[in-house]
């Protein structure tokens, strides 16, 4: 039995992203050759909204647009460059989230809940709860108006963030500065090596030892055997949270830092 030859060209659909070649450009319209899918037009408000994006696009240039109407009164496919750009941005943002990428954004605005930071042409929201301590508004009593004033001081500044959550349908893009802390710590850790003496602050005391914060984003463990000099002593009898100490790095393994107070004393 002979196979019936079928047309492999799918008919155009509203909402489809399609690539075409500019064949004519007027004062208020742009005509695009869509190949087997016909001729498209960007005109009216879509044309004026896309003026910035169309700069440098001359006859013969290729572009990607979204079909908004299969056929208008003149028989053209109506296209939107702005909607195509938005959809492609959401696709890139989703890929960036999956890959855990970091971005440097500029704070455009602020309110009592957080910061507005554009990313790939989409307005992202960076909640106050997702700020690192150096940017978190320290306001006694949590007065919303005072928090908003503190956050306003960050407008215009650059902040490194990761994508915390996104929903293209709801046009929701949530950013997080906290999520970059691990990356920052890994980068800073490259500056240190075994044998270095560091100065920091005790951030926690447990039965098995104590934690010390040092540098910008680093925290290491001082095991009880590297603290105590007398039998029957416990770490909480020797150290307290907030205490400033010097310690020696005795090992760096799997991104973890192990330190000693004893060795730091010996090397003074």
Report what the structure shows:
This protein is of the alpha+beta class and 268 residues long. It has three domains: 17-86, OB fold (Dihydrolipoamide Acetyltransferase, E2P) (Beta Barrel); 100-179, OB fold (Dihydrolipoamide Acetyltransferase, E2P); 191-266, Nucleic acid-binding proteins (OB fold (Dihydrolipoamide Acetyltransferase, E2P), Beta Barrel). The protein is 21% helix and 38% strand. It has helices at residues 45-49, 51-54, 81-98, 144-152, 181-189, 235-238, 261-266, and strands spanning 17-25, 29-33, 39-43, 62-69, 77-80, 102-106, 109-111, 114-119, 122-127, 158-167, 172-176, 197-206, 209-214, 218-223, 244-253, 256-260. The strands form four sheets. A five-stranded mixed barrel has the order 1-2-3-5-4. The chain has a five-stranded mixed barrel with strand order 12-13-14-16-15. Strands 6-10-11 form a three-stranded antiparallel beta sheet. The longest helix has 18 residues, at 81-98. It is elongated and about 90 Å long. 23% of the residues are buried.
List the helices and strands and how they pair.
Layout: E1 17-25, E2 29-33, E3 39-43, H1 45-49, H2 51-54, E4 62-69, E5 77-80, H3 81-98, E6 102-106, E7 109-111, E8 114-119, E9 122-127, H4 144-152, E10 158-167, E11 172-176, H5 181-189, E12 197-206, E13 209-214, E14 218-223, H6 235-238, E15 244-253, E16 256-260, H7 261-266
Parallel strand pairs: 3-5, 14-16
Antiparallel strand pairs: 1-2, 1-4, 2-3, 4-5, 6-10, 7-8, 8-9, 10-11, 12-13, 12-15, 13-14, 15-16
